[in-house]
TrEMBL record:
A Gene Ontology term for the protein's cellular component: plasma membrane
Protein name: Branched-chain amino acid ABC transporter, ATP-binding protein
Biological-process GO terms, alphabetical: D-alanine transmembrane transport; L-alanine transport; L-isoleucine import across plasma membrane; L-valine import across plasma membrane
Nucleotide-binding recorded as keyword: yes
Keywords, ordered alphabetically: ATP-binding, Nucleotide-binding, Transport
Record-level Gene Ontology MF annotations: ATP binding; ATP hydrolysis activity; L-isoleucine transmembrane transporter activity; L-phenylalanine transmembrane transporter activity; L-valine transmembrane transporter activity
Alphabetical list of InterPro entries matching this protein: AAA+_ATPase, ABC_AA/LPS_Transport, ABC_transporter-like_ATP-bd, BCA_ABC_TP_C, P-loop_NTPase
Amino acid sequence: MTNPSTPPLSGAPLLEVQGLGIRFGGLHAVRDVTAQLQPGRITAIIGPNGAGKSTFFNLISGFYKPTSGRIIFRGEDITPLRTHLVVGRGIARTFQTTTIYQELSVLDNAMIGHRVRTRAGLLDALLRTGRERHDESESRAGAMRALERVGLAGQAALPAGALNQEGKKRVGIAMALASDPHLLLLDEPAAGMNPEETENLMGLIRQLVSGGLSIALVEHKMNLVMGLADDILVLHHGQKIAQGTPAQITRDPAVVEAYLGSHAHGGQMGQEQEQGGQPGTVQDAGVDHA
């Protein structure tokens, strides 16, 4: 299931990981993962709990430093860069738990996301220098552009905590968009949302990609994954076991074996079946509880 506006695969990947891995003590949380994310597409990262999905995001975004492998983004090796420099290169992310400042306005939250693009320092802020005033004006304008993209421009003055769950999710996405990324990482964006809110979120994600953004998402809801993803990367025990289109992934023998194995043993992957899943497919294995 591919978005009709999605460009075909061509040219250099937007992001490439080569033999990527990280160890915590003796545990390989991510191990020898080689994969590519293509520009202008939606890539879903799926797998059971403990598969290494969020750790994979933390490596790409600079929160963790890999113990092996490289991360190439837009042709540049960003492996050694700190988080703020990775954001500056054009990778932004959201988190499983909505990290917004409830007491601040929606606009102020979005402005925080734009600050990575500013140059003023602490002294500028204390003295209210011309550079600080210029940066604040730029941040306000950038934040409003982000709010317009997520449909919250009309709620800019409201306290973020006054919004419903969907609204708060959109604020979190606006904070990431305000940094003007090329690649947006969404970590379980639909967590805690009802079906109507999930559909609205899917519409927003499609809109962002049609506007030129590339998105990678970790998500447990397989109806969302299959309804959105152009490509799917499957992790299991920290290792890549498959990557391809949704049609390819649902019939991949390694994926089916891993997920049906979890189902047969009453694992989390098999707690609940997708409606309409065909026997012998990933959907039939209940992968939505990954």
